Amino acid sequence: MKNSDELQVTSDERKAAAETCHTSHVTRHFLGLPHRPPFVFVRKVVACDPGKSVDARTWFDADDPMFAGHFPGNPIVPGVILTEALAQAAGIAAASGYPETARPLFLLSAIRTMKFFQAVRPGDQIDLAAEKIGATDTLLQFKVSARVDGAVAAEGQLVLSVAQNLAEAAE
């Protein structure tokens, strides 16, 4: 995938978008995510370069229902959930490059690589990073990583597609 600025907006629109992507808890319209609880896994945006990258944070409480089955007595955050949290971080980075009223829908379309280096446990603070490394008209590729106490727990590359807004498509 080549580097491209095909999905650019004007500087005034970028400034407006940046206002919604500041150090904050993910509550202001979920910062461009189409997800809603209980499927929002990014808890806080720490830093954001609109349209390019995001540093975010998440954690999972020990009483989260997924830990009753993964794994009883030895709970571990499932790799697919960690990957989804990274995809959501990439989605926030992508969406933040657009004004709130003109954000396209970004969907996870490919997991190019994903490696897991250590188990992530309930209560761990997980630092998420997503950086755009390439783009075409309809695809964005991100380098992503999850760290716990500075150690890499997972890293890889994810591809998001720019899709027609599903709500508009249903009309």
Commentary on this structure:
Helix content is 18%, strand content 35%. The protein is built from three helices and seven strands; from the N terminus they run H-E-E-E-H-E-E-E-E-H. Residues 1-11 and 13-18 have low confidence and may be disordered. The N and C termini lie far apart (33 Å). The chain is globular, with a radius of gyration of 16 Å. The protein has a single domain (11-170), classed as Thiol Ester Dehydrase, Chain A. Strands 1-2-3-5-6-7-4 form a seven-stranded antiparallel sheet, covered by helices on one side. The longest helix is centred in the middle third of the chain and has 17 residues, at 79-95. The protein is an alpha+beta fold.
